[in-house]
Every structure is written in structure tokens, then in C-alpha cells.
Amino acid sequence: MVFGASSSSSKGMTSIDKRNDGNNNFVAERNLSALIVDDDLIVRRIHTTLLTKLGVKTQGVENGKKAVDLFQSGDFFDLVIMDMEMPVMDGPEATKQLRAMGIGSMIVGVTSRNLESEKQAFMGAGLNDCYVKPLTVDDMIAILNKLNNN
User: Fold this and answer.
1) What is the CA radius of gyration of the chain?
2) What is the pLDDT of residues 66-104, one digit of tens each?
3) Burial of 67 (0-12, 13-18, 19+ CB in 10 A)
4) How far is it, in rounded angstroms, from Cα 63 to Cα 19?
5) What residues does each domain of the chain span?
């Protein structure tokens, strides 16, 4: 998959969509790292592929406990894509624990259900934003632009 740069900016994208690597691929403005937390291997692969194509170094784990453990061991990620429903430790609990540890990384929740009440409850755990999964190229670019502008 190759994602070409677009000259239109209907979503107000300003940073990532205007830069390319000479092959018309999006590239991040700075070295960014992301942790993909999802129990669905296919969704992890989709999100990893999208972020990698956008110039982001990624790592994936299958539950919130493993995400918390990575941060406790000293690993750092600029961005965390956090699934809501997972075994062992779900997204809201993992997000609460990360925030309680003082983790200031951008945490974006993803859910397979588009129920506003569930998204709001997940946001209450400390997310920066919440989307229905899987994320699209436009979603990822919007997220990375927000991260680059912080």
C-alpha cells in the first residue's frame, strides 16, 4: 500500500499531508513511536502498517496489561492506540493506570462499536480521543497532526 499526498485539506491537515519522502509517501515530521494495543491481530497489523507507512516506529501488544508493563519497564511511546475491549486488562483500565503513572503520551481509544455512551465512558478513563476501528489513513493522519502540533 502506498498513500499519496493530497493537495486538498478538507480535514484541516497541515503537517503530515504536506510532506513526502520523494516517492509521494507521507512521512512524520519527527521520529515518533506508537504502541498498538489490541487483542485482534488483524487490526494490530492494519494499524501497524498504516503508521509504518506514515513514518512511525510501532510496536504491538495484545492487552492492556502488557501495555502498562512496557511503560513500567521504562519504554516510552509518543502515541498509544488503545482498544476498548481486551482480555486480561481492557482499554479503560489500562488507560487509567497509565494516566495514574503520569504517562502523558497521546492515548487514542478504538472501539468496534459506535455507541456514544461507551465512547464517552472510555474518554473518561483519560483518552485524548476515540475512534471506531479500524482506523483509516485519514484518521491516522489527523491523529499524527494533533500529535505533531502538541
Assistant:
1) 15
2) 999 999 999 999 999 999 999 999 999 999 999 999 999
3) buried
4) 33
5) 16-148
